[in-house]
Amino acid sequence: MTLDDLDKTASSRLSRRERQIMDALFEAGELSAQDVRAAIPDAPGYSAVRALLAKLVEKKIVDFREDGPRYIYFPVIAQEEARTSALQKMLKTFFGGSTAAAVNALLGMNKDKLSVEEINQLQQAIDDAAKTELK
Fold it and tell me: What is the pTM of this model?
């Protein structure tokens, strides 16, 4: 199952807390419920974290393995897949589906902070996209 599959139903949208948990799991790879609680800002109680993890397991975004008396949770989907899905949703919601509008907004925010290497990477991505479009 992919995040795109999940995005097709309203009940599958992630809450703010669920996204925080996913961020922590992506960063660490796998965590116990207590470790998740320690990793998220202004964390709710342990029982609430366990309930949120259970919801994510139910949504088939997270799975777990037993490690003695505790469960260790880990993401089922790849971080790159989640990133792509989130960006597609952001493009649609905030930029009318326009990649150029999103890139221009990002560049406007960070134009003074881009390194020569980052500028070269962006130029290469633009050149590659132009070549693909011309085919």
Answer: 0.60
Q: Which residue has the tokens 């777990």?
A: 64
Which pLDDT tens digit goes with each residue over 63-101?
999 999 999 999 998 777 777 777 888 888 889 989 888
Query: From the CA atom positions of the chain, what is the Rg in Å?
Result: 19
Residue 41's Cβ-side half-sphere holds a number of Cα atoms within 13 Å equal to: 4
Closest CA to 25 of 57, 66, 1, 69: 57
Which of 3.40.50.300, 1.10.1760.20, 1.10.3900.10, 1.10.10.10 would CATH assign to domain 3-75?
1.10.10.10
CA distances in angstroms from 28 to 59, 74, 102, listed in the order given:
20, 9, 29
**What are the sequence ranges of the domains in the chain?**
3-75, 98-134
CA distance 121 to 75: 29
CB distance 99 to 84 below 8 Å: no
